[in-house]
Amino acid sequence: MAIEMRQQMKMVQQLVMTPQLQQAIKLLQLSRIELQDVIRQELEENPVLDESAEQEEIREADQFELQEKEEIPVTGEAVEFKEVAAGEETIKEMDWDSYLEGYNYSAGEQYYDDDDDRPSYENILTKKGTLSDHLIWQLNLNRFTDEERLIGVELIGNIDEDGYLRSTAADIAQICNVDEEAVVCVLARIQDFDPAGVAARDLRECLLLQVRNLGMDGSVVEAVLTSHLKDLENRKYKQIAKAVGVEVNDILLAARIIAGLDPKPGRLYGQEEVQYISPDIFVSKVGEEYVVLLNEEGMPNLRINPLYSNETKAERNQSGKVEEYLSEKMRSALWLIKSIHQRQRTIYKTSKSIVKFQREFLDKGIAYLKPLVLRDVAEDIGMHESTISRVTTNKYMQTPQGLFELKYFFNSGISTTDGDFIASESVKNKIKEILENEDPKKPYSDQKLAELLSAHQINIARRTVTKYREMLRIGSSSERKRLF
Question: Does the reported pTM lie above 0.90?
Answer without folding.
Answer: no
